[in-house]
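Example record

The entry below shows one chain as it appears in the dataset: sequence first, then structure tokens.
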Amino acid sequence: GQMEAMGKTVHVSVIDTGRGMPAEIRDTLFTARAISRKQGGTGLGTKIVKDVIEAHSGVIGVESEVNRGTIFHIHLPMEVPATFFSDHVSS
């Protein structure tokens, strides 16, 4: 993976050189019940990751090509928004 400061955001890339994902999996990856493997699971992993990143005013995206691999791109602000603590921390 890689991490790079870009202006007021940090860009994190998580790179997997595995088998990649077809479009039908990629398109539903960040939804609840996104199960792309034959084994069990709740299908909530990537949805939870997306929700946590968005709760921190960030964004996540994915690019993937079958037989070439996958790259997750995460962009997070370097500064915590002023409303973060009032919205997410109880006194």
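Notes for this example: The chain has one domain: 2-88. The two ends are 37 Å apart (CA to CA).
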